[in-house]
Structures are given as C-alpha cells and as structure tokens.
Specification:
By secondary structure, this protein is α+β, with helices and mostly antiparallel strands. Helix content is 32%, strand content 16%.
Length: 681
C-alpha cells in the first residue's frame, strides 16, 4: 500500500505573512514575548551588595518582606511572613531594607541600618530599582536594535554585541511595552518577518503571488534546532513532534533566538537573570514566562495551546482573577480551563451575556488580541506617606512636601522636563483625616521651566488651601501627585477626531469561529473583525490579592515581584464590565506589598486623581481630561443634529435588492463548538 504524498504547501497563506509585517493582531504567525526579571528587587540588592548567587536574601520594608530570592525560598521563606520569622527559618538570610527618605533630611534617599525602626519618620524610596529598570530597558533596546541592524544593514556579526543601527527602522520593526518595573512585552512580529525574508528568499515580496489567499510553500526544513534554555510545551493531542514544522513554528524559533540574545545580554552586562514566555499573544506569553522560573524561556507553539492552557485555573488569566472569575466558578462549578472547554458558546452567552460569553469562549482557547502598546512613558507621578500617629502641624506637613517634591522632581528629570520633552500639567495634593479624603489641585504654569522650587511653591499653595479648612488635623495620609503629562507642544484635535471613537482603550472583539487548531481557524479569516471598547475591571480590582493585581498571575504566587497596582493594558476583559471606583494612576514608584497596610492604604487612597462622574454617560473621568470628555459629547451632539437635519430634507432611500452599503455586517454563527477534555501540563 502506497504512503500518502506529503503536502508541498503550508497551512498558512500569503496574507498571514503580509499581516506579520504590520504587527497585525489577526495573523496566526504573530510573535509576542514577555520578559520578566526573576525576583527583581532581590536581584537588585544582590547586584548592589555583590553577594554570591547562592546567598539567601530578602528585601525588607518595615517588618514585611517585599521580595525573596530563590536560595531563600528553599527555606520556605515567602513574602507572606515577617522579617523576624524569615530570619528564624534561615539564620544566614540577609534582610536588606529598602532605601528611604527621612523627615528633616531634605530630599535625599539612602540605605539606612535603622530604617526598619523609623517608619514614622522615613519614607520608602524605590529609586534604586527604577534606576536598574531603566538600565535593563536600555540593554533590551540595544539588543533589539542590533537585530534590526542585521536585517536592515546586511548583518552585524554577533547580534547582542553589535552597535545599534537601523535608524527609524527600529520603531517600525519592534514594539516594546513596559508592563511594570520588572517586565516588558515585546511584539517581534515585524522583526521576525524581516528575518524570515533574509533566511528564506522564497518568501520575498517580489516572488509573492497576486492572490494573497494562495498557500505559502512549506518551510525548507524538517527539523528545528531549539536552544538548551528553550522549554517547549508538549503538543496537543493529535499533534506529533515528528510532524514537519510549519511557518508558525519557524516564527517561534526566530523569536526564541531573539529573546535568548536579550536575556543573555542582560546577564552578561548587568548580571540580572530573567525568564520569558513566547507565544502568539500577550496572554499566553505572560503565563509562559512564569512557568519555568528562574532564568528560562517557555515557548507556547500554536500546536500546543490547549495542552498549555488546559492545566491552568482560568483565574490565572487576565481579567478572570476577580469578580468575573468568581462568577464563572460559581456558575459552572470549576476553575480549570480544560473543564470549561466543555461548556458551549450558547451556554456561556446565556449565563454571561453575548459579549462576555463570546470573549470567555475565545480566551480559554488561546484567542486573545490585545496589542503591545509602546507606552513606556508614565502618565502620572505620585509620592505619598501615611502617618501613625498623624501629623499635627503645617511645619511637619511642609517637611514632607519637600521630600515629595524631591522624589517627584528626580523622576521628572529622567522624563526630560528640563529639555521640555515632557511636562505635567496638573499638581494635586491629597489629604486624609478622620477617614475623609480631601484633595486640591492647580495647573502647573506653562510660562516657565519646572524645577523643585516651582513644585514646592505650588505644593505649599495647595497645602495652604487645605489648612484653611476645618478639622484637618491630625493628618493620617499626605501625598503629592503630578499628572496630565504631555510631550512638548501638542496640537489641537479636530472635530473629526472625536468621531473615531470615545476616548478609551480598545481591543479587538474575540470571535467564536477562531478556535481550536490555529492552522484551521485562521485559514479563511482574512477579514479583520470589529474592535470594541474595554475597561480594566477585574484586572484592576485592588480589593483582591496582590497576585491578581499583577495581571495574569504567574503560577507561583511567590514569583510575583512587580509592585504595580495599575494595569494599563486595554487589551483584556469584556467591555461592559465597568469599574465602580476610580482606578489609581500610579507609576512604578507605588509603595510595595499589601501586607504593609499603612503605605498600601496610601497608594489606594491618595493615588486617585480628582475626577468627576459624567452625568451623561456615568463614567468616572480624571479631572485633567474633563474638558476633552465634554468636548467629545458636544461633538457627538453636533453630529447627531446634523444627521437629523439631513434626514429631514433627504428623501428616503429606495430599497434595493443589490448589495448593501456600509451596513453592519453579521458576525459568525458561533456553532463550531469543539469539545475538548482537560490535558495535563
């Protein structure tokens, strides 16, 4: 009996390759990496103190631990115990307190031996960690520029050791999103596209057919050489390693090579280890980076998606760690992805509504379409302190304002405030007394440069306004916040721009037809689907534990070292889940660890920008954005009036049996419900 003749064509079409060049969210060849520093704060102290790699070390804030290195974890030390208990478990443990500012010493932070006993007079400074984060980000960019230089300039030798070349091509080929002080997402799609053209001339555009729906040729290789640190997730049932690789596998291999160079350079230049996840979207890349810590990278191939997700609780997926996740668990009696796969789309829609049900149906099948946003620039800066007992005089408050100003101004210098590259528009003071939060804000004058004197004078003006009120002492929480950052001189928006969508983050809506094997699900999906608004609800819910606050949580809660509360990533969660509280706007200086209830309360309470609730749409809008939001409503009103007037003088259109114009296109039927069982991972 004759053997079947192997196919000479790929499962992918030329359109998929073309979309890769533009970092499209809709190509199954997409390549996203999540790079996460291992126990970052602890590593910073190990590098600073030059400790051996085997030395147990934890980072302390007051009597709590905010980071624990891996040698210390072997003794059962976690961030959930006190420093005293940790030293009992491991007498050799180094507990290094974070740097602090001190009342009366101006705006200078330093490491102090007595900081743990001086909570009332000291304020945490995370500046050492921010400095290291900036250095690491610089190395990441340098390595990626080297790769760009290779594909643009024809080769630069050893990539991570080469000079950065490529000019503006870097911004075209690489997108880096700083997701926290210790983690970044990188969209490598366009760079991988260029590498593919360099390595495989058959794919070059000049040889591509006119019909973009024509299948690509098979890759000219039957074996892919993965690196020693590349941990491949086992393939789904029905797939085999002996099967010839396709172009999605080749893309993963190229991405793994790039990320390996990044990680190697960070170690060789700065002595930091990091882990990475490589997948077709941010959700799976994030989960992957946490799977095999420390110092490894996990590759989630398209043929391994269900095997990978099947062993996870879906509460680890971004936007499912809070209220929505609890709802789903209660409704279906499970929190395992593998078991939820057996629930049909109709059941999910019936229980959760059309939009949320469809989103959940897609995301547990690995279909998630949030984009990597180039937003390493922060939106606001906060410096805050809680007091027990509360401070009782203006003189004390002014001492702390001086510290806040020094803290913020140091970060403003990094943002290029002296060169007018970026500057904030608003300064706000927050004041809590007797359980009541008060705030005052004023615009920062634009006619003169910003320096620490200007900020301190503005802060004192706001302080005077607060002090003029009744019952303001003792003060339990005091903070200063600058916000409304803009890049140099910004132009005015046209009226047209308001009709491109309500200001807010958007993601592409999931679709039921793109499920199961990615090779089949994308083959005929050349049309991009509609995009919808989304709000950060469960991922930004600050009432649940720190693991959930960090979005989508790693498997090991002890690994979650990022101190971010806010997750600005708009690309997750169903759109109608609107937060009922104001989301704090916090940069990476947010004070650590929910165990430290004093400063944690300060973050949650004092970081809230003044806002108003729009009476027309009931949305909470930051005060600096109020006029733009009102302008948006005004523009929509004008547009509606014009349409009404036009309709009143325009005769009704004749019915036609031909194709309709710009009407709303119907979505897929969503009847392809593939039942799958849970797979161990």
């Amino acid at each position: 009996m004759s053997q079947p003749i192997p196919s000479t064509t790929s499962a992918f079409i030329h359109r998929h390759l073309t979309l890769l060049r533009s970092c499209s969210l809709r190509t199954p060849l997409r390549l996203i990496a999540h790079i996460d520093l291992d126990a970052f704060y602890a590593q910073c102290e190990m590098v600073r103190l030059n400790t051996p790699l085997t030395q147990p070390l934890a980072v302390q804030q007051w009597d709590s631990l905010i980071a624990v290195n891996y040698p210390a974890r072997a003794f059962g030390i976690t961030r959930m115990i006190t420093a005293v208990e940790a030293r009992k478990r491991c007498p050799e443990l180094i507990t290094q307190h974070v740097a602090t500012f001190r009342e009366g010493e101006g705006g200078h932070w330093r490491y102090r031996e007595d900081a743990a006993e001086r909570k009332g007079s000291d304020k945490v400074s995370l500046e050492p960690y921010r400095n290291e984060s900036r250095r690491i980000l610089g190395v990441i960019r340098g390595v990626l520029e080297g790769w760009v230089g290779r594909v643009v300039g024809g080769g630069v030798g050893e990539v991570f050791g080469g000079e950065a070349v490529g000019g503006g091509r870097y911004e075209q080929l690489v997108r880096v999103e700083k997701a926290g002080i210790d983690e970044v997402f990188v969209d490598l799609s366009a760079l991988v596209y260029e590498v593919l053209l360099e390595k495989y001339p058959m794919l070059r555009e000049g040889e591509a057919p006119r019909d973009l729906n024509e299948r690509l040729p098979k890759p000219p290789t039957t074996v892919l050489e993965w690196g020693k640190e590349d941990l491949l997730v086992d393939l789904d049932v029905g797939q085999a390693e002996e099967d010839d690789p396709d172009w999605d596998d080749v893309c993963m291999l190229v991405g793994a090579d790039i990320v390996r160079d990044v990680r190697r350079a960070i170690w060789e230049r700065l002595k930091y280890t990091c882990s990475a996840g490589i997948a077709r979207n941010k959700m799976m890349a994030k989960l992957g980076s946490a799977c095999n810590k420390p110092n490894k990278q996990t590759i989630v191939r398209n043929r391994a998606v269900q095997q990978f997700l099947g062993g996870f609780p879906f509460t680890k997926i971004r936007a499912l760690g809070g209220k929505l996740g609890k709802q789903v668990v209660e409704m279906f009696g499970t929190e395992q992805v593998g078991e939820l796969l057996n629930v049909s789309l109709e059941q999910l829609r019936g229980k959760l509504g059309d939009e949320t049900g469809l989103w959940l149906y897609d995301v547990i099948r690995g279909n998630e379409y949030s984009e990597v946003s180039v937003r390493t620039k922060i939106k606001s800066m906060l410096s805050t302190k809680s007091f027990r007992p509360g401070i009782k005089s203006t003189a004390q408050a002014e001492k702390w304002l001086k510290i806040f100003v020094a803290d913020i101004y140091g970060r403003l210098l990094e943002e290029g405030v002296l060169e007018n590259k970026r500057r904030p528009k608003v300064i706000t003071i927050h004041w809590r007394t007797a359980g009541q939060m008060r705030s005052r804000q004023i615009p920062i004058p634009t006619g003169r440069p910003i320096d620490d004197t200007v900020l301190f004078d503005l802060g004192k003006t706001l302080l005077t306004q607060v002090v003029g009120e009744k019952n303001i002492w003792p003060c339990q929480i005091l903070s200063l916040n600058v916000s409304g950052f803009e890049d140099g001189v910004t132009g005015n928006q046209s009226l047209d721009s308001f009709f491109r969508g309500n200001p807010g983050a958007k993601i592409a809506a999931p679709a039921a037809q793109q499920q199961g094997d990615i090779r089949q699900g994308y083959l005929h999906s050349s049309e991009p689907r509609k995009r919808r608004k989304v709000s950060d609800d469960d991922a930004n819910n600050i009432n649940h534990d720190h693991a959930a606050a960090r979005s989508p949580g790693p498997i090991d809660e002890a690994e979650e070292e990022s101190l971010f509360i806010q997750d600005n990533d708009p690309g997750h969660g169903p759109s109608h889940f609107t937060p009922t509280t104001i989301t704090p706007v916090i940069d990476e200086s947010a004070l650590p660890t929910p165990q430290d209830s004093d400063d944690w309360a300060a973050i949650i309470s004092a970081a809230q920008e003044p806002s108003f609730t729009c009476p027309r749409c009931s949305k909470s809008v930051p005060e600096p954005d109020r006029s733009e939001h009102e302008d948006w409503h005004f523009a929509r009103d004008l547009y509606a009036q014009e349409r009404q007037q036009h309709a009143s003088i325009t005769p009704p259109a004749r019915h036609s049996t031909g194709s309709r114009g710009r009407g709303r296109r119907k979505g897929g039927s969503g009847n392809n419900d593939k039942r799958q069982s849970r797979l161990a991972f």
